[in-house]
Structure formats: structure tokens, C-alpha cells
Amino acid sequence: MRLKNVLIIVTDIDKSKRFYHDIFGLEVVLDNNETVILTEGLVLQQKKIWQDFLKKEVKQKNHASELYFEERDIEKFVKKLEQLYPEVEYVNKLMKNDFGKKIVRFYDLDGNLIEVGTPM
């Protein structure tokens, strides 16, 4: 068995597709308007579909998971993020962790937690 995809909930599919393309270079693999599969296995699903399926309210910024990406030139990445999406809310700005690895954490447009770090 292997993990096939990771699904996150979004309120505006088109804005989220653009965000993940602009920031991470992810391309659309499959798009049925309410569920979109991007390269690297990330799936975006419209919030209403998920809520209707679960019969529960979606809790944004729940801090129960994060998407993790690696980037060698993290300073260039942060500049791009700041230029393209200045409204992004940071959990922590660019910093070094205890292992000397540079990381930045922020929320996507819907409150999904993202970490970008330099490779170890």
C-alpha cells in the first residue's frame, strides 16, 4: 500500500489553484470544478462538498496537520511569497531551527498550514 494523495479544503478552487501554481509551481492534473488534483498529489476540494459529505463544519486553522515543502533557495522563495501574496499570514517568518535548518511557516488562503524548509 502507498499514500496516493493529500486532500485539503478550500473555499475558492480557482484562487487556490493559482496560489499553489504561483508559489509552488504545482500544475493541474485533473479538474472537475469541485475537486482538483495537482502535481505532487495535492488535492483541492471545495469546502461545501466536504461539509455536505461529512455533515460537519470545517474548522479552518486547526493546526492538526501541515503541508511540507523543501526549497534550497529559501530566501528567494520568501521574497516571491511576499511579492505575490503580501496578505499571507505567517506562523513564523524565516528562521533557523535547532538543527540549523531554515524554515518558514504560513497559512494558505484558507488557513491550511504550510511549512517550507531547506533540505537537511
From TrEMBL:
Residue intervals of the VOC domain: 2-119
Family matches, as Gene3D superfamilies: 2,3-Dihydroxybiphenyl 1,2-Dioxygenase, domain 1
Pfam family, one: Glyoxalase_2
Coiled coil location: none
SUPFAM superfamilies: Glyoxalase/Bleomycin resistance protein/Dihydroxybiphenyl dioxygenase
Taxonomy, superkingdom: Bacteria
Name under which the protein is recorded: VOC family protein
